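User: Sequence in, structure out. Go.
Assistant: Echoing your sequence, followed by the structure tokens.
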Amino acid sequence: MCSAPKQHDQRVKDIQRQVREWRKEGGKTHMCTGRPGWLTVSLRVGKYKKTHKNIMINMMDILEVDTKRQVVRVEPLANMGQVTALLNSIGWTLPVLPELDDLTVGGLVMGTGIESSSHIYGLFQHICVAFELVLADGSLVRCTEKENADLFYAVPWSCGTLGFLVAAEIRIIPAMKWVKLRYEPVRGLSAICQKFASESANKENKFVEGLQYSLDEAVIMTGTMTNEAEPDKINRIGLYYKAWFFKHVESFLKADRIAVEYIPLRHYYHRHTRSIFWELQDIIPFGNNPFFRVVFGWMVPPKISLLKLTQGETIRRLYEQHHVVQDMLVPIKHMQAAISRFHHDIQVYPLWLCPFLLPSQPGMVHPKGDEDELYVDIGAYGEPKTKHFQARATTRQLEKFVRDVHGFQMLYADVYMERQEFWEMFDGTLYHKLREELDCKGAFPEVYDKICKSARH
């Protein structure tokens, strides 16, 4: 309904008009986007939407694919499902393409995004080459590594507290038809960490991912893109009647066998979409039953936004107290200690293991030293099995461990850190400098005030 790429410039002017009107009226409250909180792919709904000035931003189009420069220019509400559908059909793809269809470019820029190719390319922010923003004074600014560089590096992880994103230019690379995926079961925590680290360091692997099913059992997957496939090894895992991907992977662990499959590229990118990683097993416990998949598989997954919209207060509290959804980013050299910590504190399995290269660049998130460093995203989604689990106290223990090893917490999840602890984890030097220079303090809340637990329900 809102798609109209040729109207992009007009829509930008409309956002500028709204911001200038807010200033004329005295700027009594902070501004935020007018997109309803339940539409976002995050665990909670921000309370600030009800108290802040809502700026309407209906921008959801792919504006241009420039194959000469190898970039795609998109609006902030274009999502990963849209992007893959278009780019893959013309032989291109994003170097880092986060799994879930509904993740938007704006969310991935202002928050973060990761994929099993991140050990080569970094996080989603690291494949972006330009941002266009409407600032607190209503002006339109373009920033790149060379033009307005401070702003370019400060935008990622800022959660919309430096300006309104109206377009982004993102690198694209040539795509192939298939992903040749190798599954290898590994046993023993030390062996798992060593295997994962060595495969992540091997740039011949275009994709690296691990699913850990217990403290000492995992399947490490490595993949490459190819245009040729062995017909008897093709697996179109994205078809609605196919087994959920994490269950399919587990079958190789149970059989204790190494295997190779050829998966259509777009099916691979969205391999975790149908089961929302493994969250859907808690919502539809029989969802992976073959009969259910064949008869009703086309109906799933339910939209995350629908689940949030229809979730009552009691259910929300139950989820908060008895359910974990966290992504912690830690240096790969601390991977074994981190997994042991997760096991001791929450004991949630499977764990999602995704490596990424963290470049030594300015901004909120960078390695401790002056060199690029390999990190791993440890994703825990499910019901904790430890008897001593307490949402606030346990998450704070995990957060402290992550701070101590110079890691980072993804900000879509419940954040229980105090403000001082938050800025110990993240480098606020450039961010606060830009907030001052661009007169953001009266226009936008500080990032901590948007993501802390008290700001969400």
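User: And one key feature?
Assistant: The chain has 17 helices and 17 strands.
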